Amino acid sequence: MMTVEFAVAAALFAGVLCYAVLGGADFGSGFHDLTAGGSHRGAEVRTLIDQSIGPVWEANHVWLIYVLVMWWTGFPESFAAAMTTLYVPLVFALVGIVLRGASFAFRKYSETLWQARLFGVVFATSSVLAPFFLGTIAGALASGRVPEGGNGDAWASWIAPTPLFTGAISVGTCAFLAGTFLTADAARRGQRALAERMRRRSLAVGAVTGAVVFAGLIPIEHDAPTLWEGLMGRAAPVVALSGLGGIATLVLLWRRRFGPARGTAVVAVAAVMAGWGIGQYPWVLVDQVTIAEAAGAPATMQGLLVAVGIAAVVVGPALGYLFYLTQTPQWNGQSEEEPKRVHWSARLDA
């Protein structure tokens, strides 16, 4: 039976899915920036990253604000319990998000090579650390390490098998998703050599990430039995869908079908996140507080649903149009000469 509490929780988790896919691709670009190579070898990859995420990276992180506001308004006591327990990884994640955003902007206006390299390192490193710590928060919640009354162990709550594995999985899925998107973008821009390079990287990252995802199920059985039961029960079809989506993406990348590969990559990542949510249901804090128990006042929950409905009508089309524009050459300034543009690192090194 659909209840107001369930509807609000579903709307909240929809925001988590959007952030995992859109923000995840944004974070994952930093992994490829970090591993692109020196100023000359990595110039093409970094130029592609700047052009691909530049118009949308701020919009992608709106979903984090949405999730936090929905959580503290709709389920305030569980939010307080999580914040007073998991403040260490949360601070690390938020600092990483701030540093990567500032460095991404400052790098473009660097006047010397050492400045550009410094901001580039901060951007890339923060892009890896932020999803890792966000993943540990999810793992701590899912493994029942947040007590109902809050003020749990600030370190043991997230330095444990399930949180650390979910952190690693978060980094891997972000890198895989971003690699698939960047490969398709390079091919769309006519940069065949770069597309081939990103294709090989994405295949390697995808294979490793898939292995980590399914290897992570081993410690979960003993470390988070409630989550394990849900994953092997009602969430099993979604877990299988994530595996099929990942395999389909690898096959499409291998066959150089980059456009469809983006869709299957999104399905794979979204299914991983959905499997976590379905496996954890009906708990907000696993083994501690359910959705119904954590819900705020009925009037507040109803107001949230109204606000979500208005946002869906007003903000949804605007975001959709923004992403459409980023794929349209005449709107994002792309031309036939664009592949010849030189990245800041090559210019400064010249």
TrEMBL record:
It is found in: Cell membrane. One of its GO terms (molecular function) is electron transfer activity. Coiled coil: none annotated. One of its GO terms (biological process) is aerobic electron transport chain. Its main location: membrane. It holds the Pfam family Cyt_bd_oxida_II. Keywords: Cell membrane, Membrane, Transmembrane, Transmembrane helix. GO terms for cellular component: cytochrome complex; plasma membrane. It is a multi-pass membrane protein. The chain crosses the membrane at residues 79-106, 118-142, 162-182, 203-220, 232-253, 265-284, 304-325. InterPro entries: Cyt-d_oxidase_su2. Belongs to the cytochrome ubiquinol oxidase subunit 2 family. This is Cytochrome bd-I ubiquinol oxidase subunit 2 apoprotein.
